[in-house]
Design a protein that fits this description.
With about 250 residues, this protein is α/β, with parallel strands linked by helices. It is built from 8 helices and 12 strands. The chain has a 6-stranded mixed beta sheet, with helices on both faces. A 4-stranded antiparallel beta sheet has the order 2-1-4-5, covered by helices on one side. Strands 7-8 form a two-stranded antiparallel ribbon. A hairpin with a 2-residue loop joins β4 and β5.
Length: about 250
Amino acid sequence: MSLALEISALSKSYGAVHALRGVDMTVHSGEVLALCGDNGAGKSTLIRVLSGAHEPTGGQMLLFGKAVQFKSPHDALRQGIATIYQDLAIAPELNIWQNVFMGAEITRTLVPGLRVLDKAAMRAQAAKLLQSLNQSILDVDCAVSQLSGGQRQAVAISRALLWKARVVIMDEPTAALGVKETAEVLALVRRLREAGVAVVLISHSMDDVVAVADRVMVLKSGRKVAESVTRGLTPTLLAQAVMSGSF
C-alpha cells in the first residue's frame, strides 16, 4: 500500500490553548485509520487542519509524498482530501444528482454563447457513482430527504468521489443511526477501502472501529498517546485503551 497521508509534529494553538501537540500520523491507500479519544482530545482540531478549515501552527503534512498546505476546505478537496461531517453538508430538499454535483455542475453549449446545465450527464454520472458504492438507488431524481441515513452517507461519499478524493475523512458517520443504517455505512467504509481510498474514521463507537478499521490511533489532550492494529482488539479493550492512553 502506498503512503497516502503523513503528518509530522503537527501542532495547533489558539492563543494560549494548545489543541494539538506534535501529532504524527500516517494512513495508506486502501486502509482505514480510526481516530479515537474523549471529548477535548483534539480530534475535531485535527480534522479541521486536515480538511483545510484551519491552518496548523507548526509541523508538516505530506499528501502522497508531496508537502501540502491548505488555505480552505475547497483547496483540500481540490488536492484530494474530502471531509464528510456528521451533518453531511447536503440539501435534503434537492434531489440526489443535484446534491452530488453541487458546486461542480456539468454544462453544455446550447447555442454559441449560451451554456445550460447538462442534467442528463449529471444524472448518469451520479447513478454510476452510487453503483460503484454498491448502492441500489434507482431514481437519482429522488429527494435526499426520502433517503435513509446510510443512503445519505452514500450521496455525500459520491460527491467526494466526484472530486476524485483519495483521502476521505469521516466524522462520526454512524452517530444517531439505527442498527441497519449503521451496517450500511460500515459497508460503505469497506467499499472505499476496497477502491484504494485512504479513510480516516473518527468515531466514539468502539464496535464500529473494531469492525472496519485496520489501525486505531488514540489522542489525549492534543497528543497521540497510543496506536495499534485493530486485529485482536475487542471493543472493551479499545475502550480501556482510550481511557488509559495505552494498549
